[in-house]
Amino acid sequence: MSASTPLVVTFAIYLIAMIAIGFYAWYSTRTFDDYILGGRSLGAYVTAMSAGASDMSGWLLMGLPGAIYLGGASEIWIVVGLLVGAWANWRFVAGPLRVYTERTRNALTLPDYFTHRFADDKRILRIISALVILLFFAVYCASGIVAGARLFESVFGVPYAQALWYGAAVTIAYTMIGGFLAVSWTDTVQASLMIFALILTPIMVIVGNGGFDASMAVIREVDPSRLDWIGKGGAIAIISSMAWGLGYFGQPHILARFMAAASVRSIPAARRIGMTWMAGCLLGSVAVGFFGIAWFGAHVDAAAEVNANSERVFILLAEQLFNPWIAGILLSAILAAVMSTLSCQLLVCSSVLTEDLYRGFLRKKAGNRELVWVGRSGVLLIALVAIAIAWNPQSRVLGLVSYAWAGFGAAFGPVILLSLYWKRINRNGALAGMLAGAATVILWKQSGSALYEIVPGFIAATIAIVVVSLLTREAPAAVQATHEEVRRELRTTGY
User: Fold this and answer.
1) Cβ neighbours of residue 272 closer than 8 Å, sequence gap 6 or more
2) Is 456 within a domain?
3) What is the CA radius of gyration of the chain?
4) How far is the CA of 484 from the CAs of 238, 267, 489, in angstroms?
5) Rounded to whole angstroms, how far apart are CA atoms 179 and 394?
6) Is residue 488 part of a domain?
7) Residue 301: its H or E element
8) 15 φ, ψ (degrees, to nearest 5)
9) Which domain holds residue 241?
10) Which of 31, 52, 255, 324 has the maximum number of C-beta atoms within 10 A of its C-beta?
11) What's the pTM?
């Protein structure tokens, strides 16, 4: 049996299982609400796992370990920021958004929520927010497809153009077939696989290095600066890293999981499960990169490949430390991370195309069966656009991914937060905030500043919302009454 055979078998079993879950979800999908939000039926565990898996893409097993491997302890501040931001999102957004979206005509998407929350009869918010989502997510999806392609390319040695279709095809298939339920159930499996890989691998790396103390000694010998918590960037770098946490408040694919929870009362349990999973995964990812320094410092002959591309540190450790069967399972975790995020993004784009553009402007009285099939067609359309973008892995547009998180966080985050907690916010303020946040992120990125663009973008959006809302007419009485009703309901549930 060749070394690649166990990899082929484990990958094949994993991919077939994902397709099977998609077909199982098919039979539970009857209405468009089922296809887009699973009929708001997710329990605490699935809500938590799906939110986590949709958040943590291939970056968790490739990008973060690679950054830690290169930069050492100074890169851990991004983990601190993400943990704080994720907890705040669960605590202050998840419950209120679940209640509010149900009160605003059972809103199925963020543009739908904005439209009804602000009584936007002209549907300007729907159009602007839908276009922002489609723009950034097309690029996000492309990056996920590229990450999957590079995994198949490096593990199996297949050409990039061929590798591009392998992971993408399966993700497209189960997302099209089973919709939100398929995505959520596969996310749960994928999240379990990810944390298994990120707990087992660093343990074996430390054992292989001769223990914790021996590992630290090798790291000091290789490069003492990698133990420095501050790093060369100083305070600006720390602020920029921690500011990643602000992005959570505006990510449509994560917010959709909150909207789909069975009830607001399930949110606290989901938060505890989700944060435990996230902390375990992030700390495991950091440990892989950090103790990988020691492993390759002690095995210099095997370090050439990781020194050429630090993002391969997890892949190389899995191949070198485990037998091929276990390595196949661990490497499947990378594919799981990529697929879980890609499927969520495809579904959000499809939701926007179907609910906010097709039904919103073209077919207001479309039936459930029609909408479900339009949704499936939307998944395929967005996927094909993403594949076209990803066809050239060096395409300049993929550089937009670095600030897509900031774009969503700044454009939507302040609007979401203030819409949930401030009665005085109105449509004009929300629109001004969206535009100010997105524009500031784009312009700041071009300036070349060391400060992460989400910081000025979030501040600019918040100021724009408050100033414009106070200078323009108050929201209609009915809108303010709904806000008060939501706040009263939340107080009865502990929010």
Assistant:
1) 48
2) no
3) 22
4) 39, 21, 9
5) 31
6) no
7) none
8) -65, -40
9) 4-394
10) 52
11) 0.89
